[in-house]
Amino acid sequence: MNKELETTFNSRQFMVARDFELYYYNDSQYLKIPPHTHPYYEFYFFLAGNANYEIDNQITPLRYGDFAVVPPGIVHRAKINDDTKPYRRFIFWVKEEYLQRWITDCPSIEFLIKFFKGSSRKFIFHQDSVSFNSILRDIVRLLEEMHNQKYGREDMISLRSLDLLLHLNRLIHDAIYPPTAKEDTALYVKVCEYIENYLENDLSLERLADEFYVSKYHLAHNFKDNLGVSVHQYILKKRLLACQNAIMMNDPISKVYTLYGFHDYPGFYRAFKKEFGLGPKEFRKQSLTLTRAATPPSSKANLL
Question: How many whole angstroms separate alpha carbon 280 and alpha carbon 265?
């Protein structure tokens, strides 16, 4: 985690911002906070440490993947069991008025409000590492926007906060009404979708592991076990297919191979010929010949 996104913890338990506040804390010294309530929602995401979360007379030992939702007026606190271990977490405070303002355009937001105003006393939710890491990715993106001064900052903050709130609504909904196995998306499927959408980007194993907040070892084995090919082999085939399609559309070969992540032409040439049996230029000639042969006589004048 970027140290610039970190906030020094203090005992303030009230909001100063109009809509929401978001903090990343990484403490080695602790200020003890007694049980308390807020007039707004608190979302608490546990990352590391040895702590229990006490809420509404329920005590839960925390582990990575846990997040708590504390509605307005509910007594709660985090209690540290071992102050020799660093204690890391995200805290997201959100006023109900801010949630209400989104409901007209995004009705899904209302699920969270209705659920916690009902009779349920479920406040702690646990996610597997992949799902939890996807939440953390949304949190970090919002936090990064809040800490920069780039053009469109306020609009991006608004969009990132909505994205995070919708994500949390979905996770809470799915925890209450579990999706079927068919709807549950596995890690390797998510990685495939990401590769498909970002073929032009850095797709190293390290980059993918960072994107999905998993170890390189876990990602590589999960992918190979489910698809039978390595991540590298899959990316190579996808990039070569993208290059083949672009060459068929008459895009310049010199631009095609660099666009899709090949660093030099000789390496691209060898990979292309091994995959398709022809070099890129030979493939283009064959493709144009087949196109002309398949064009009706009345249309051939248009190719000249």
Answer: 10
